[in-house]
Amino acid sequence: MEAFFTVTSRANPTIKIQAAAGHFATGSAHRSHYIDIFELKTNASEARHAARELAMPYLSNTIVDVIVYTDGAEVLASYMADELLQAGSGVINEGSEIHIITPIHIPDGHFIFHQQVHELIKNKNAVLLAASMSTGATASKVAECLRYYGCRLVGISAIFAAVPEFNGVAVHSLFSNEDIPDYRFYNLSDCVMCREKMKLDAIIDSEGYTKV
C-alpha cells in the first residue's frame, strides 16, 4: 500500500479526496486504489461544498422527491436536499418536500424499506446518492428495490464513480477513474493483481479499510 496522495475536484478546487495505490478487496470486486472520502461524508463544511456540486445537475430540470443514500452519506444527502430546495430562478424543487432515506441491507444481499417509507417513495422520483460507485453492484440492487416499491430512479450521484452511466441513468460524480492515475477494478474471479500474485493490502468498505 503506497502513500496517500491528494486529488482535487476539477469542478471545485476546495473539494478534495485522498487516495492510495495497492491491492484492495470489497465484497464484490478488487481495486487498484483505496479512495478515502471520510472527510466529505463527515465534515460539515466540506460536505456542504460537495453537496452544492452534486445538486447542480438537478436544480433546473429534475423533480426530486426522495434522496436515497447509501454508504453512510446522510450528511451529504441533507445538504444536497437543502440545495435542491433553495429559492431561486429556475430552481424546480423550490417549495417542495424532499425526504432523505436509506434502504435496509438484508442477509440475502438485497435491500428493503421499512413500512413507513413505502408511501414516501411510491410513484415518486428518487436520486440515489452513493459515496463510491465502481462496479454498480450496490446501485443495481438499490434500483431493483426502488422499482419493487414503485419508485422512479431519475438520477445517480456519487463522490467517486468509475462508470459514467448505469442502466441508462447518468451518474453525476465529483471524481471519476480519470482523476486517479491507473485506477482499475476487477470482478472477484478475474483479478489481474491476484493472477500476478500481488499481495492484498486491505479489505475496504464504506467505513474505511482494514489491513491484512
Task: Explain how this protein is built.
With 212 residues, this protein is α/β, with parallel strands linked by helices. The protein has a single domain (5-211), classed as Rossmann fold (3-Layer(aba) Sandwich), CATH 3.40.50. Helix content is 23%, strand content 34%. It is built from 6 helices and 14 strands. The protein has helices at 38-42, 44-55, 74-84, 118-121, 137-148, 192-195; strands at residues 5-8, 16-25, 29-36, 66-69, 99-101, 104-105, 111-112, 125-133, 152-161, 165-166, 169-176, 185-187, 202-205, 208-211. Strands 1, 2, 3, 12, 13 and 14 form a 6-stranded mixed beta sheet that branches. It has a 6-stranded mixed beta sheet with strand order 5-4-8-9-11-10, sandwiched between helices. A two-stranded antiparallel ribbon has the order 6-7. Helix 2 crosses helix 3. It is globular, with a radius of gyration of 17 Å. The mean pLDDT is 93.
CATH architectural grouping: 3-Layer(aba) Sandwich
Q: State the share of residues found in helices, binned by percent.
A: 10-25%
User: What is the helix tally?
Assistant: 6
* Strand residue percentage: 25-35%
Structural class: alpha/beta
> Any idea of the CATH topology?
Rossmann fold
Report mean pLDDT, rounded to a whole number: 93
Rg calc:
17 Å
SSE run = EEEHHEHEEEHEHEEEEHEE
Uncertain runs: none
Terminal-residue CA separation: 11 Å
Tell me the count of domains: 1
Please count the beta strands (DSSP E, at least 2 residues each).
Answer: 14
> Biggest β-sheet: count, sense, barrel?
6 strands, mixed
CATH class: Alpha Beta
Shape: globular
